[in-house]
Amino acid sequence: MHHWGVLSLYLLFIGSCLCQYKPTWESIDSRPLPEWFDQAKFGIFIHWGVFSVPSYGSEWFWWYWQGQKYPSYVNFMEQNYPPGFTYADFASQFHAELFDPVEWVDIFASSGAKYIVLTTKHHEGFTMWDSKYSWNWNAMAVGPKRDLVDEIATALRKHSDLRLGLYHSLFEWFNPLYRADANNFYKTNVFPTSKTLPELYEIVNKFKPDVLWSDGDGDAPDTYWNSTGFLAWLYNESPVRDTVVTNDRWGYGSICKHGGYYTCSDRYNPGHLLKHKWENCMTIDQRSWGYRREAKLSDFLTTEQLIGSLVETVSCGGNMLLNVGPTHDGRIIPIFEERLRQIGQWLNVNGEAIYNSSAWRVQNDTATPGVWYTSNPKQNAIYAIFLSWPTDGYIVLNDPIVSASKTQVVLLGYKSVSWQSMNPTGLKVHLPQLAPSQMPCSWAWTLRLTGAM
């Protein structure tokens, strides 16, 4: 009798856990962010879809061509395609014939990223998986004739270090069901109930992502999308309820205000510590998220710039989600691959200052520009990451409080270095004279201080 009493109490407890979150923002926003996300610090964004076929201008190609009728897009189509060619005709040219998901995952893993976020459906409405709700506008029915999301998810799961994230656009520019609801000022909700929400349940149940990256609210409120109702299910009952992390793009007015972590705007990098977990989603190609054939070398951020952004982002409490745009045939072009592998080389040396780190009491040094701090309280360590190697052989760190008997300073990838304290706080670190081939890494360097405050 006693055992049954314990069991019934346990079942009651489990039952109450399943309905822990109510479909209100107050309840949804009270959910603690799963720890893994803050520890991960670095992810890869992948914008791939039918827009990768014209690969001109932007992943917003269809909207700029036919929604806004931008002259450069209209001229591009008139000069290169026959009269009457529609955006839908691009899908049959999206073959992905050179796509190798194992090779992709190798590149992502080598970058040091801990999660990826793949576009399962952009605002064009084309689903990259075999969806029951996309009416022949999907990668299984036309183009590749493959479930591309499933192939990437399968390859990814063989890498224990990488977690799967899925991007999904709530709205679709030219879907007649969406247009009808918009014309009714969102008083009807045919589109979300017949398309958006069924897709969201489908990708979560089928692919079990650890990140669900929502986008594209179409200026419709979260009540139109039933965002809180869906998120309550996601957090209470879904197969990923314990691990899943979501962003803040769940309806007009929710960005930077509601959801698991904040994105606030594309390429968001505030340069100071925020109270709420945030993510800087940004692109290697400064002008586009999708692949552009007309891109010039100067359009791509350098490895130095990318590592600088990563360091600044992590120092201020954020994660960096770095975007690549694959080609329509399924390649990640060499310049993207090089950037990712070089970031990985840097993280191999300096990763302890990034992964599992916490923001320190100061973000950037108050005396020496280009120095950013992180900390690891469990290791009793403060990290000072400097973005340029000083010419005079030393660097001044103004903010740490040091002790002559306790403080030790190590250049990561090298060894201990000498230093002297300054008044009233701070220290002068003497850097070794190293030939380029002796440097522990390129692009930026890290000093680990232990026994300091």
From TrEMBL:
This is Alpha-L-fucosidase. The record marks C281 as: May be important for catalysis. Gene3D superfamilies: Glycosidases, Golgi alpha-mannosidase II. It comes from the Eukaryota. Residues 363-450 form the Alpha-L-fucosidase C-terminal domain. Its EC number is 3.2.1.51. It catalyses: a neolactoside IV(2)-alpha-Fuc-nLc4Cer(d18:1(4E)) + H2O = a neolactoside nLc4Cer(d18:1(4E)) + L-fucose; an alpha-L-fucoside + H2O = L-fucose + an alcohol; a neolactoside IV(2)-alpha-Fuc-nLc4Cer(d18:0) + H2O = a neolactoside nLc4Cer(d18:0) + L-fucose. Alpha-L-fucosidase is responsible for hydrolyzing the alpha-1,6-linked fucose joined to the reducing-end N-acetylglucosamine of the carbohydrate moieties of glycoproteins. Keywords: Glycoprotein, Glycosidase, Hydrolase, Signal. GO terms for cellular component: lysosome. GO terms for biological process: fucose metabolic process; glycoside catabolic process. It is an enzyme of class 3 (hydrolase).
